[in-house]
Amino acid sequence: MEKVNDNQLKSIPEETAENGVTRRQIIKTGAAAGAVALMGGFPNISSAQNKTLNIVRGTYFIPGAQEIAKQQAAEFGKQAGVKVNADFLNWTDLNTKIGAGIQAGGIDVIELWPVQNHLYANNLVDMTDEAEEVAARGGGFEEYVLNSGLVNGRYLGIPHGNNAGTIAYRISAFEKAGVKHADKGGMDMTWDEYFAVAKECKKMGMPFGQSLGHSLGDPIGFCYPYMWASGALEVGDDGKTILFNTPTFEYALNKFVQAWKDGYDETGTSWDDSSNNRAYLSGKISSTFNGASIYYASKRRDDGGELMNDTHHMLMPKGTAGRYHEFGTQTMGILNNSKNIDVAKEYLKWWFQPENFDKWWRIQEGYQLHHVKNLADDPMWQDDPKMGIFKEIPKYGRLRGFAGNPNEKASLAASKYIVVDTFAKAVQSGDAKDALEWGERQLKRIYR
Amino acid sequence: MMVGSDKQKTLQIYIPLVVYTLLLLFPFYWMGVVSFKPTSDIFDLDLNPFWVQRFTLENYLYLFENTEFASWMWNTMVISIVSTALSIFCSICIGYALARLKFPGSDFMGIGIFLVYLVPPTLLFIPMAQVIGTLNLFNTHWALILTYPTQLIPFASWLLMGYFLTIPKEIEESALMDGCSRIQILVRIVLPLSVPGILSATIFCFTLCWNEFLYALIFMSSGDMKTIPVGTVSDLIKADTLFWGSLMASALLGSVPVAFIYSFFVKYYVSGLTASAVKG
Amino acid sequence: MNSGSIQSENFLDRESSLGVLLMLPGLILLLVFLAYPFFLGIWLSLTDTRIGMPGEFIGLWNYTDLLEDDIFHQTAWNTMIYAVVTVPFKALMGLGLALILNNKIRFSNPIRAFVMLPWIVPTALSSLGWFMIFDPVFSPISWLMIEMGLIESNVNFLGDQILAVTAICWVNIWRGIPFFGISILAGLQAVPPELHEQAAIDGANKFQRFVNVTLPQIKGILMITSLLSIIWTFADFQLIYVLTKGGPANQTHIFGTYAYQIGLFGTEIGMAAAITLYMFPILAFFSIFLLRYMRKTA
């Protein structure tokens, strides 16, 4: 038995001995007891862990922003004398991590997407005082921050703006399709007009592209606004009545189905958040809904600025019920099961100081919209007029689940991709009515 | 007798073999091609995607300069080796007990261990995270070293039990007569005779450890503690952009160690499986 | 252990006590890290727990509710296709591979290691390779077919219902072939050559020898490998999570991905636990089948 054990443990690197358990001990006590002995060794780690601050954020598309955030975390750690783990996760895995962190601990500071501050309201530390300090220093929060950042009048995390999505397009293609002032950007179009351009562009071999796959960014960012603009809601303001399958929406969805055939790249049913970026950047499509990441990437291409100069932005087109964007603020929150709430608060207070925050914010060239009014006139906005339109987006912003609360039901509907799948079903089968009935049934199950 | 001439052999063996190899290895070829291309070429639709036009190592360099790939490799290595060792130790014990010893509940244990194996990780990981949290193991190698065996022990025990059954009982019985204790028999007689079986179980465990994703994602929180699959996915997919070249480079480099081990031990792997699965 | 050495010898030599002792290390690990979370999972499925919100006992509500959920119906159906329908393909192609590898070939060890790659490379990573191969815009397959003049626009591999199901099933088969191949190869090598020689003397042709000699010998391993493969694929997650996340319109959702979506994005972990537990009886059925089979042969 000893012999086996010995062979086993030769492969354990010396590192493990640090916990105060030597190989010999494990061998002597046998594996069962060894496991217990190891457990005995763990407090070592845990006592160190009390002084560790675990920060989890999403990855930043702009490498510099992530680099700065990482450096700043380390800098804070040095000043405060704590060990800081700053982790940046790809967006799809972020939810998993947050869920596990809330259930089981292990995370202190967390970057929350819009809606998540509402969703996890019971598990976040109230940061109202800290948030209001940030607001006061910055000349007050922007309107959209007040609408989406407050949960029952409290801030459960300090808002730090969000990256907004809108329509990016190729100026040359739009001009050829007869759009006036395409080079100026910011056209005020209706969905009908937009689809007409799509048809022209597809004839030229450069269709529009839209993600309708299972991805939480662009598909939702496109389908919800189209639904809202067509006079439909998931649920009314009573949080019960489903207002999804309306005649105006059916009419509009039929139009979309037609436009999909006439003007879109029909492989879009499998696209995710990244597909349209790739398609656009390779010149395959002439317009898509996306964050500023397409434009940002085009600026950095070694094509002599060709694509950058040919790219511009406009707001979401208008429908019969108006113009909408799916938009709200992100927040930096602290989980209330954290063992280091004080350190975490210190960190956030420190990070939101203008000398730290603004550095991180400016490097993103408008990719991350500002949270406080003072930054609206920041010289950074002068650098690139093509980014100016992004500042308009918040005016049209609504959260998932509108006109109900952005609560767990809204999140369940989004996680089941009910609205997105209604679109996907409609374009797959060509039967908008049937797809809408399916969507309505699903929503009724959620909002019962 | 089996194969007549060289020509026939080519026709019957080598041609199908080439077809199989192409089919099974095409994705790796493709990943290799992508990993040696500059990003602009990857997305240039005018270029032949099956070939590298402008060779570059920048994707590999990116891995080592801008990510913590070396740490991921080290973590994956340490966790896989220790976790495999732990699993094999437990599995040898369980396998031998189930194969040779009668003890209260031994029948039930055999089935029970197999049944727990059916519990999918997708169900377990939230409660599991709670256990890990309670033991204060987050972000330590131990979190994975102690949880992976639950995925490995059931299958490895079953494999080893099958292997132990192939060893003639008479050898052990005569050793017992000679006054050897059961443990001595296990260590001195059974184990040396079971090397192929143990090796195939080891390779099996190692592979699964190396591949695991979900637990590694949840239990490890800092960049330098990640494993290769998790690090690759979380560091090379940035917001809505995928770093294809480096993703593929990382995927390939991350596969090398396992492939290397297989090329050495595949012979034992086969013979270990042969004995335990066929006769067992 | 010094003073009581005689006693402990006796203790360790008694089958019952030694048996229990040997089971202990593994059992402890399994109890703490598997059985406990598992029972917690069962409990969760009987509650309306959400992430961060302790739930209340609601009996079998989650289970009955799922029976009315047509996304769940679709998910169950997809899972059956994904796990069961792919098995004959894996088995046949694996058998073919094994028959080839069972010959004397040059470089047989490296070749064997190479063809194992689909199975040994982390699924999270190889699926990313396939993800790019199936890319709606950059697919090399589409490119080739367009070059050859077979089609005019890119194939919608992961966006069309039939193509998407075929694509994920294919990647699943691709990953499974080597496991079947190497296991069947192990079986083939256990076939005593004398049997073949005898059959050849008796005048059996190649095919007859395969059916009458080889097949009965590898039947057992074929059975076990198939059942293991079904069990593993039922609980799959990574592959689909990378390729489609269940889309388009839920046409590729399987238990694992649907539960993950509901539990982690929709925060309903009670419901998610119920989804995964629906797998359990099906898996238990297959494994009891497997265990009984193994017993009979043993």
TrEMBL record, chain C:
Coiled-coil annotated spans: none
Gene3D superfamilies recorded: MetI-like
Keyword annotations from UniProtKB, A to Z: Cell membrane, Membrane, Transmembrane, Transmembrane helix, Transport
Transmembrane segments: 20-44, 80-101, 113-134, 154-174, 221-243, 269-291
PROSITE patterns, sorted: ABC_TM1
Alphabetized InterPro entries for the sequence: MetI-like, MetI-like_sf
Name of the protein in its database record: ABC transporter permease
Organism the protein comes from: SAR324 cluster bacterium
Lineage of the organism: Bacteria, Deltaproteobacteria, SAR324 cluster
